[in-house]
Write a structure and sequence with these properties.
This protein is of the alpha+beta class. The chain folds into two domains: 7-171, no CATH class; 185-308, no CATH class. It has helices spanning 13-27, 87-93, 101-123, 137-143, 185-191, 194-198, 247-257, 264-267, 280-289, 294-304, 314-319, 321-324, and strands at 32-36, 48-49, 52-57, 63-64, 69-72, 77-84, 128-129, 147-148, 154-155, 163-171. It has a four-stranded antiparallel beta sheet with strand order 1-6-10-7, with helices on both faces. It is globular, with a radius of gyration of 21 Å. This is Putative reductive dehalogenase.
Length: 331
C-alpha cells in the first residue's frame, strides 16, 4: 500500500482471520489456526537458521546479514497453516517408491503457499515471515489443528494423519487465538498401535512395549536399525511427553530400499478413513468422548482392510487415473 500511497487493510481480528483463511484456500492450503507470539510460543521459534541466530529486534522489516536473522518485534502473531497431502499414493503404495509422490507434491505445495501468502500479506500492508521455525508439529498441536500421534506427527479430525506439515507465518496482523483440542485421537493411540505394527523399519514403539507416551527419549540400547549403539539425543529432543521414535531406523530403511521415503505409518492411520463409511461420523463422536471402544474400532479397521491397495489393483491404478486420483485443486 505504501507504494501506491494508500492505507493498509484494517479489520477486526475475526475479519482478519476470515480473510487470511480464504487466502490460504486460494493459495492451496487446507485450514489455518492462530496463536499469539508470547513467552511460551516463542520457544517454538528456532534458535538459529543456516548457522545464524534468530533474534527479534525493533525494526520494520525482517532481514538477514552475515551474523544473524532478524524478525521484527511487531510480529506478535503466528498463523499456522496445514498443507494437505494427496492421500491415494500415500495410503496405497507406501513403502514403495510410488508412496512418496504425495509427500514430494506437498513439500512443493508448502513452498508455493508460503510464497503466495507472503505476497498477499505484503499487498495489504502486513508482514508474513516464514522459515523461522524448523519444528511444525508442536505448532499444530498447540493451536488445535492437530493432536499428537504415536508416530509423533499430527492427526487432524478431518483428514487424520494425511497432511504433510504446517507452515508457520509470523505476522504483525492481529488474529483471534485458537485453542488446543481434545478429539480423542491422542488417547486412541494408547490402544491402537497400527502404525507401529505396519512399520517396516520397526521405528515406532509398539503398544505392548509402551502403551502411553513418556518423557524418556529412545534408548541407546534400542536394537532397531544400525549402528547398534544409537545416540538418541541426536534425533529425539528431550523435554516433551511423546512416544519415542527411532528416526535412524526410519531413515535407514529409506537408504537401504532406495525408496526416497516411506510414509506407510502415515498412510495406514485409522483416522484417515472417516469418509469411507456413513457410520464413521458416529465413530468419531464416540472416540472424542470415551476411550472404552478404542480397541474395538482399531480391530474393525483391520478387519475391513482399510489402507493399502491390493496387489491385483496396482496396474489398474496406473491405467485409470480418473478412478483413483482427483485433479489437484478441483472437486
Amino acid at each position: 500500500p505504501d507504494d501506491y500511497g494508500i492505507p493498509r487493510w484494517q479489520g477486526t481480528p475475526e475479519e482478519n482471520a476470515a480473510m487470511y483463511r480464504t487466502a490460504v484456500r486460494i493459495c492451496g492450503g487446507r485450514e489455518t489456526h492462530f496463536l499469539p507470539l508470547d513467552e511460551k510460543t516463542i520457544k517454538l521459534v528456532s534458535a538459529a537458521k543456516g548457522g545464524k541466530p534468530i533474534v527479534f529486534e525493533d525494526v520494520d522489516l525482517p532481514y538477514t546479514d552475515a551474523t544473524k536473522c532478524v524478525i521484527p518485534n511487531k510480529c506478535k502473531y503466528a498463523a499456522i497453516t496445514m498443507v494437505g497431502q494427496e492421500p491415494v499414493t500415500t495410503k496405497n503404495h507406501a513403502p514403495d517408491f510410488g508412496g512418496t509422490f504425495g509427500a514430494h507434491q506437498a513439500y512443493s505445495m508448502a513452498a508455493k503457499i508460503e510464497f503466495m501468502l507472503r505476497a498477499f500479506m505484503r499487498g495489504i500492508g502486513y508482514l508474513d515471515v516464514f522459515g523461522a521455525t524448523e519444528i511444525n508439529v508442536p505448532w499444530g498441536i498447540v493451536s488445535g489443528l492437530s493432536e499428537l500421534s504415536r508416530m509423533k506427527s499430527g492427526m487432524n479430525p478431518k483428514v487424520g494423519s494425511l497432511f504433510r506439515k504446517c507452515v508457520i507465518g509470523l505476522t504483525d496482523m492481529e488474529f483471534p487465538v485458537s485453542k488446543p483440542i481434545d478429539a480423542g485421537m491422542h488417547r486412541f493411540c494408547y490402544d491402537c498401535g497400527k502404525c507401529a505394527e505396519m512399520c517396516p523399519a520397526q521405528a515406532i514403539v509398539k503398544r505392548d512395549v509402551l502403551r502411553e507416551p513418556t518423557w524418556e527419549i529412545t534408548s541407546p540400547d534400542n536394537p532397531t536399525g544400525n549402528p547398534t549403539n544409537l545416540k538418541p539425543e541426536l534425533f529425539n529432543r528431550p523435554g516433551k511427553r511423546v512416544w519415542p521414535f527411532n528416526h535412524f531406523a526410519c531413515h535407514n530403511l529409506w537408504v537401504e530400499t532406495a525408496s526416497d521415503g516411506c510414509g506407510r505409518c502415515q498412510g495406514l492411520c485409522v483416522f484417515n478413513n472417516f469418509h469411507l463409511s456413513s457410520i464413521h461420523p458416529l465413530v468419531k463422536t464416540t472416540v472424542s468422548v470415551t476411550p472404552l471402544l478404542n480397541s474395538f474400532f482399531y480391530n474393525a479397521d483391520r478387519l475391513f482392510g482399510y489402507g493399502e491397495l491390493p496387489e491385483s489393483s496396482r496396474e489398474d491404478f496406473w491405467l485409470k487415473p480418473d478412478k483413483y486420483l482427483p485433479i489437484t485443486g478441483f472437486k
